[in-house]
Amino acid sequence: MQLMEGKNGVIMGIANDRSIAWGIAKSLAQEGAKMIFSYQSEAFLKRIKPLADSIGVVDLIECDASSDESIRSLFTKTNAKLGKIDFVVHAIAYSAKEELTGPYLNTSRANFLNTMDISCYSFTAMCKFSADYLSDNASLLTLTYIGAERVMPHYNVMGIAKAALDASIKYLAVDFGKRNIRVNGLSAGPVKTIASSGIDDFRYILKWNQYNAPLKRNTTLDDIGGCALFLLSDLSSGVTGEIVHVDSGYHVVGMKATDAPDISVV
Protein backbone atom coordinates (compact mmCIF):
# COMPACT_ATOMS: atom_id res chain seq x y z
CA MET A 1 0.00 0.00 0.00
CA GLN A 2 1.30 3.48 -0.90
CA LEU A 3 1.90 5.92 1.95
CA MET A 4 -0.61 8.51 0.71
CA GLU A 5 -3.20 6.19 -0.80
CA GLY A 6 -6.68 7.50 0.00
CA LYS A 7 -5.33 10.90 1.11
CA ASN A 8 -6.53 14.16 -0.43
CA GLY A 9 -4.84 17.54 -0.22
CA VAL A 10 -3.99 20.99 -1.51
CA ILE A 11 -0.64 22.35 -2.67
CA MET A 12 -0.34 26.14 -2.60
CA GLY A 13 2.59 27.96 -4.18
CA ILE A 14 3.93 26.02 -7.18
CA ALA A 15 5.48 28.43 -9.67
CA ASN A 16 7.35 26.09 -12.03
CA ASP A 17 9.24 22.78 -12.13
CA ARG A 18 12.00 24.15 -9.90
CA SER A 19 9.64 25.10 -7.08
CA ILE A 20 10.06 23.40 -3.72
CA ALA A 21 6.30 22.82 -3.73
CA TRP A 22 6.63 20.92 -7.00
CA GLY A 23 9.25 18.62 -5.49
CA ILE A 24 6.79 17.93 -2.66
CA ALA A 25 3.87 17.38 -5.04
CA LYS A 26 5.83 14.81 -7.07
CA SER A 27 6.72 12.81 -3.96
CA LEU A 28 3.10 12.82 -2.80
CA ALA A 29 1.81 11.78 -6.22
CA GLN A 30 4.25 8.86 -6.36
CA GLU A 31 2.73 7.62 -3.09
CA GLY A 32 -0.87 7.82 -4.28
CA ALA A 33 -2.11 11.21 -3.06
CA LYS A 34 -4.96 13.03 -4.81
CA MET A 35 -4.28 16.75 -5.06
CA ILE A 36 -5.59 20.13 -6.05
CA PHE A 37 -3.12 22.90 -6.91
CA SER A 38 -3.90 26.55 -6.24
CA TYR A 39 -2.45 29.22 -8.52
CA GLN A 40 -2.05 32.96 -8.22
CA SER A 41 -2.92 34.20 -11.72
CA GLU A 42 -3.37 33.15 -15.34
CA ALA A 43 0.37 33.56 -15.92
CA PHE A 44 1.11 30.97 -13.23
CA LEU A 45 -1.68 28.71 -14.48
CA LYS A 46 0.03 28.41 -17.86
CA ARG A 47 3.26 27.34 -16.16
CA ILE A 48 1.85 24.76 -13.79
CA LYS A 49 -0.95 23.16 -15.82
CA PRO A 50 1.46 20.86 -17.72
CA LEU A 51 3.01 19.84 -14.39
CA ALA A 52 -0.40 19.14 -12.88
CA ASP A 53 -1.44 17.10 -15.90
CA SER A 54 1.75 15.03 -15.70
CA ILE A 55 0.86 13.67 -12.25
CA GLY A 56 -2.93 13.56 -12.56
CA VAL A 57 -3.87 16.51 -10.35
CA VAL A 58 -7.65 16.65 -9.83
CA ASP A 59 -8.09 20.38 -10.43
CA LEU A 60 -6.40 23.79 -10.40
CA ILE A 61 -8.11 26.59 -8.46
CA GLU A 62 -7.17 30.26 -8.46
CA CYS A 63 -6.36 31.72 -5.05
CA ASP A 64 -5.13 35.14 -3.93
CA ALA A 65 -3.19 34.60 -0.69
CA SER A 66 -3.89 38.18 0.41
CA SER A 67 -7.69 37.67 0.30
CA ASP A 68 -9.65 35.84 3.00
CA GLU A 69 -12.55 35.33 0.59
CA SER A 70 -10.27 33.78 -2.02
CA ILE A 71 -8.70 31.40 0.51
CA ARG A 72 -12.12 30.45 1.87
CA SER A 73 -13.32 29.77 -1.68
CA LEU A 74 -10.30 27.56 -2.39
CA PHE A 75 -11.13 25.21 0.47
CA THR A 76 -14.89 25.23 -0.16
CA LYS A 77 -14.25 24.19 -3.77
CA THR A 78 -11.62 21.63 -2.71
CA ASN A 79 -14.03 20.02 -0.27
CA ALA A 80 -16.68 19.83 -3.00
CA LYS A 81 -14.19 18.08 -5.29
CA LEU A 82 -12.33 15.81 -2.86
CA GLY A 83 -14.33 15.59 0.35
CA LYS A 84 -12.33 15.73 3.58
CA ILE A 85 -8.84 17.23 3.27
CA ASP A 86 -5.94 15.23 4.72
CA PHE A 87 -3.05 17.60 4.04
CA VAL A 88 -2.25 21.14 2.94
CA VAL A 89 1.13 22.48 1.81
CA HIS A 90 1.65 26.25 2.11
CA ALA A 91 4.61 27.36 -0.02
CA ILE A 92 3.86 31.06 -0.38
CA ALA A 93 6.09 34.05 0.40
CA TYR A 94 6.74 37.48 -1.05
CA SER A 95 8.77 40.62 -0.43
CA ALA A 96 9.83 43.41 -2.75
CA LYS A 97 13.18 42.44 -4.29
CA GLU A 98 14.69 45.90 -3.84
CA GLU A 99 14.19 45.65 -0.07
CA LEU A 100 16.24 42.46 0.19
CA THR A 101 19.43 44.45 -0.39
CA GLY A 102 21.19 46.86 1.92
CA PRO A 103 20.54 47.03 5.67
CA TYR A 104 17.32 45.72 7.20
CA LEU A 105 17.09 49.10 8.93
CA ASN A 106 15.86 50.60 5.66
CA THR A 107 12.79 48.34 5.37
CA SER A 108 9.71 50.38 4.49
CA ARG A 109 6.52 50.13 6.52
CA ALA A 110 4.49 49.22 3.43
CA ASN A 111 6.75 46.34 2.38
CA PHE A 112 7.09 45.12 5.98
CA LEU A 113 3.30 44.81 6.30
CA ASN A 114 2.90 43.22 2.86
CA THR A 115 5.71 40.73 3.51
CA MET A 116 4.18 39.72 6.85
CA ASP A 117 0.73 39.38 5.27
CA ILE A 118 1.75 37.16 2.35
CA SER A 119 4.65 35.27 3.94
CA CYS A 120 3.25 34.73 7.44
CA TYR A 121 -0.43 35.55 7.94
CA SER A 122 -1.54 33.69 4.81
CA PHE A 123 -0.60 30.43 6.57
CA THR A 124 -2.82 31.29 9.54
CA ALA A 125 -5.64 32.22 7.15
CA MET A 126 -5.13 28.94 5.29
CA CYS A 127 -5.44 27.02 8.55
CA LYS A 128 -8.53 29.00 9.59
CA PHE A 129 -10.47 28.55 6.37
CA SER A 130 -9.53 24.91 5.86
CA ALA A 131 -10.35 23.88 9.45
CA ASP A 132 -13.95 22.80 8.86
CA TYR A 133 -12.89 20.55 5.97
CA LEU A 134 -9.88 18.84 7.56
CA SER A 135 -9.93 15.19 8.55
CA ASP A 136 -9.16 14.56 12.21
CA ASN A 137 -5.64 13.30 11.50
CA ALA A 138 -4.70 15.87 8.86
CA SER A 139 -1.22 17.37 8.46
CA LEU A 140 -0.52 21.03 7.65
CA LEU A 141 2.90 22.05 6.37
CA THR A 142 4.52 25.39 5.59
CA LEU A 143 7.98 26.31 4.33
CA THR A 144 10.38 28.31 6.46
CA TYR A 145 14.12 29.07 6.33
CA ILE A 146 17.15 29.33 8.58
CA GLY A 147 17.05 33.10 8.06
CA ALA A 148 14.37 33.06 10.77
CA GLU A 149 16.95 31.83 13.29
CA ARG A 150 20.09 33.75 12.36
CA VAL A 151 21.10 36.68 10.21
CA MET A 152 21.47 35.67 6.57
CA PRO A 153 22.91 37.86 3.82
CA HIS A 154 20.29 39.67 1.74
CA TYR A 155 17.33 38.09 3.55
CA ASN A 156 16.30 41.12 5.61
CA VAL A 157 12.55 41.44 6.23
CA MET A 158 11.93 37.90 4.98
CA GLY A 159 13.85 36.66 8.02
CA ILE A 160 11.49 38.58 10.30
CA ALA A 161 8.45 37.18 8.49
CA LYS A 162 9.79 33.62 8.69
CA ALA A 163 10.48 34.03 12.42
CA ALA A 164 6.84 35.06 12.89
CA LEU A 165 5.79 32.10 10.75
CA ASP A 166 7.84 29.75 12.97
CA ALA A 167 6.05 31.07 16.07
CA SER A 168 2.69 30.70 14.29
CA ILE A 169 3.43 27.02 13.69
CA LYS A 170 3.73 26.40 17.44
CA TYR A 171 0.53 28.24 18.35
CA LEU A 172 -1.43 26.59 15.54
CA ALA A 173 -0.14 23.17 16.60
CA VAL A 174 -1.76 23.73 20.00
CA ASP A 175 -5.00 25.02 18.44
CA PHE A 176 -5.32 21.92 16.26
CA GLY A 177 -3.86 19.39 18.68
CA LYS A 178 -7.19 18.43 20.23
CA ARG A 179 -8.27 17.14 16.81
CA ASN A 180 -5.02 15.23 16.30
CA ILE A 181 -4.16 17.57 13.41
CA ARG A 182 -0.45 18.26 13.06
CA VAL A 183 1.17 21.56 12.07
CA ASN A 184 4.84 21.68 11.08
CA GLY A 185 7.39 23.69 9.13
CA LEU A 186 10.01 22.44 6.71
CA SER A 187 13.23 24.44 6.47
CA ALA A 188 15.21 23.63 3.34
CA GLY A 189 18.78 24.59 2.59
CA PRO A 190 19.43 26.94 -0.33
CA VAL A 191 17.68 25.75 -3.50
CA LYS A 192 17.63 27.56 -6.83
CA THR A 193 14.01 28.71 -7.31
CA ILE A 194 12.21 31.80 -8.62
CA ALA A 195 12.04 33.14 -5.06
CA SER A 196 15.73 32.58 -4.30
CA SER A 197 16.75 34.22 -7.57
CA GLY A 198 15.63 37.50 -6.03
CA ILE A 199 18.35 37.25 -3.36
CA ASP A 200 21.60 39.01 -4.25
CA ASP A 201 24.71 36.79 -4.38
CA PHE A 202 22.58 33.64 -4.22
CA ARG A 203 25.06 31.74 -6.42
CA TYR A 204 27.71 32.58 -3.85
CA ILE A 205 25.50 31.23 -1.05
CA LEU A 206 24.95 27.98 -2.99
CA LYS A 207 28.69 27.57 -3.49
CA TRP A 208 29.40 28.36 0.17
CA ASN A 209 26.95 25.71 1.26
CA GLN A 210 28.39 23.10 -1.12
CA TYR A 211 31.88 23.64 0.27
CA ASN A 212 30.94 23.76 3.95
CA ALA A 213 27.95 21.43 4.50
CA PRO A 214 28.83 18.01 5.94
CA LEU A 215 27.34 16.25 2.90
CA LYS A 216 29.38 18.53 0.59
CA ARG A 217 26.42 19.21 -1.67
CA ASN A 218 23.31 21.34 -1.91
CA THR A 219 19.79 20.26 -1.03
CA THR A 220 17.73 18.76 -3.86
CA LEU A 221 14.01 18.77 -4.55
CA ASP A 222 14.03 15.00 -3.97
CA ASP A 223 15.53 15.56 -0.50
CA ILE A 224 12.79 18.03 0.32
CA GLY A 225 10.04 15.91 -1.22
CA GLY A 226 11.04 12.91 0.88
CA CYS A 227 11.04 14.91 4.11
CA ALA A 228 7.68 16.48 3.28
CA LEU A 229 6.26 13.03 2.51
CA PHE A 230 7.23 11.94 6.02
CA LEU A 231 5.64 15.03 7.61
CA LEU A 232 2.42 14.72 5.59
CA SER A 233 1.97 10.96 5.98
CA ASP A 234 1.00 8.91 9.01
CA LEU A 235 4.69 8.12 9.59
CA SER A 236 4.94 11.44 11.48
CA SER A 237 1.81 10.90 13.57
CA GLY A 238 3.61 12.08 16.73
CA VAL A 239 5.34 15.13 15.24
CA THR A 240 3.74 18.59 15.55
CA GLY A 241 4.83 22.16 16.26
CA GLU A 242 8.27 21.44 14.83
CA ILE A 243 10.66 23.05 12.34
CA VAL A 244 12.31 20.20 10.45
CA HIS A 245 15.54 20.99 8.61
CA VAL A 246 16.48 19.28 5.36
CA ASP A 247 19.59 21.05 4.25
CA SER A 248 22.65 18.79 3.75
CA GLY A 249 23.89 19.96 7.13
CA TYR A 250 23.62 23.68 6.34
CA HIS A 251 21.83 24.19 9.66
CA VAL A 252 24.72 22.47 11.45
CA VAL A 253 27.38 24.67 9.91
CA GLY A 254 25.35 27.82 9.38
CA MET A 255 26.25 31.07 7.72
CA LYS A 256 26.53 34.48 9.30
CA ALA A 257 26.51 37.78 7.49
CA THR A 258 30.15 38.25 8.56
CA ASP A 259 31.34 34.99 6.97
CA ALA A 260 33.63 35.58 4.02
CA PRO A 261 35.09 32.28 2.77
CA ASP A 262 37.63 32.44 -0.06
CA ILE A 263 35.46 30.98 -2.81
CA SER A 264 35.23 31.86 -6.47
CA VAL A 265 31.78 31.40 -7.98
CA VAL A 266 31.65 30.23 -11.58
What this model shows, in words?
The protein is α/β, with parallel strands linked by helices. The chain is built from 8 helices and 7 strands, in the order βαβαβαβαβαβααβα. Residues 256-266 have low confidence and may be disordered.
Estimated radius of gyration: 18 Å
Q: Give me the count of strands.
A: 7
- Lateral strand order in the biggest sheet: 3-2-1-4-5-6-7
Q: In angstroms, what separates the terminal alpha carbons? A: 45 Å
Globular, elongated, flat, extended or rod-shaped: what is the shape?
Answer: globular
Helix and strand sequence: EHEHEHEHEHEHHEH
Task: Describe the structure concisely for a colleague.
This protein is an alpha/beta fold and 266 residues long. 41% of the residues lie in helices and 16% in strands.
Write the layout of secondary structure elements.
Elements: E1 8-12, H1 20-30, E2 34-39, H2 42-54, E3 59-62, H3 68-82, E4 85-90, H4 109-130, E5 134-144, H5 157-177, E6 182-188, H6 202-212, H7 221-232, E7 243-246, H8 250-253
